[in-house]
Amino acid sequence: MRKIIVFEHVSIDGYIADKHGKIDWAIRDEELTKFSQEGEETVDMYLFGRITYDMMASFWPTPMGKSVNPVFADILNKANKIVFSRTLKEATWENTEIVKHVDKEEIMKLKHKPGGNIMIFGSGILVSELAKLGLIDDYQLLVNPVVLGEGKPLFKNLPEMISLKLIRAKEFKSGVTFLHYQPK
Amino acid sequence: MRKIIVFEHVSIDGYIADKHGKIDWAIRDEELTKFSQEGEETVDMYLFGRITYDMMASFWPTPMGKSVNPVFADILNKANKIVFSRTLKEATWENTEIVKHVDKEEIMKLKHKPGGNIMIFGSGILVSELAKLGLIDDYQLLVNPVVLGEGKPLFKNLPEMISLKLIRAKEFKSGVTFLHYQPK
């Protein structure tokens, strides 16, 4: 079955973006870029919340996106993508489907379809919704050596705590720590 | 100079207690208890915020506290302690001084006095106040393999982000990861 993998840069205090939505504190050096790209190898589909979708869709298809990281731009542009949004009318980013809300049955169908793994970046609200429904198979967190103090949390308003199993921890030269968890 | 060391059990999402103030999700097995006690060896003073103080003061001096972890109960009971509180009239826990508010000069004087290192557990508001003033020398975080979703954050309302340097990351059998940071 296809796995749903959450892959996120987070701060020490658990935020995926600062209070202005900025992610420029996340370290993206050569070592981490290589590591992230290796992580994409099993993936052929991406899920986004509306805010992350807007940010990504306005960057990766542009000449700027393609020049910053041509390999990743190509992977993302070509992959099938779903944006979850109640209000978005049209998705201009190629290969993107709009889905109005998270439906457990539909997500399970998606996971049972043939294909590679499914990845989520950013999209804190979507991650929290899927986590609540027990639909996330893999949490891969890059803990950046920074405290933001305020910001957009990866997890929000979960009705109960989620116990995970640590698969491994890996230290990078930049001071980022990769923490890999799966549900128990 | 004496270091101020923050030593905390945190959840993956950066909370030191759940929304009810509970910390029973924090793993305290033999391996972690030994590791924590080794960390105490250079320490001879503890700082607390009011809420953490109340919790600790109602446990460690009691027969229950002394039986759960006699070594740690003895260390804590005998050590000099400061509780920061505007309202507390009397500190019944032995060797405890009440200080009304955080004053940078006073904390610097304390750090320059002869003695061992100074440790803080819990006490999120106090940690945030001291972090803002650049007074924390060492962040030692035990990241527990659990997402709380809501709770009491270690860091709150910092006016600006704090960049830290990762000293080391260490994996425990229980799935806890120790992340050790210092200011840059």
Describe the structure concisely.
Two copies of one chain form a homodimer. Chain A is 28% helix and 31% strand.
Largest sheet of chain A: 8 strands, mixed
Strand order of the largest sheet of chain A: 5-4-3-6-1-7-11-10
Helix content of chain A: 25-40%
Instruction: List low-pLDDT spans of chain A.
Output: none
Rounded average pLDDT of chain A: 96
**What's the total helix number of chain A?**
6
What does this 3D model show about the protein?
- The structure is a homodimer.
- The first copy, chain A, has about 180 residues and is of the alpha/beta class.
- Chain A has one domain: Dihydrofolate Reductase, subunit A (3-Layer(aba) Sandwich).
- Chain A is about 30% helix and about 30% strand.
- Chain A has helices spanning about 30-40, 50-55, 65-70, 70-80, 105-110, 125-130; strands at about 5-10, 15, 45-50, 80-85, 95-100, 115-120, 140-145, 145, 150-155, 160-170, 175-184.
- In chain A, strands 5-4-3-6-1-7-11-10 form an eight-stranded mixed sheet.
- Chain A starts with a strand and ends with a strand.
- At the A-B interface, strand 7, strand 8, strand 10 and strand 11 of A face strand 7, strand 8, strand 10 and strand 11 of B.
- Strand 8 (about 145) of chain A pairs antiparallel with strand 10 of chain B, so a sheet runs across the interface.
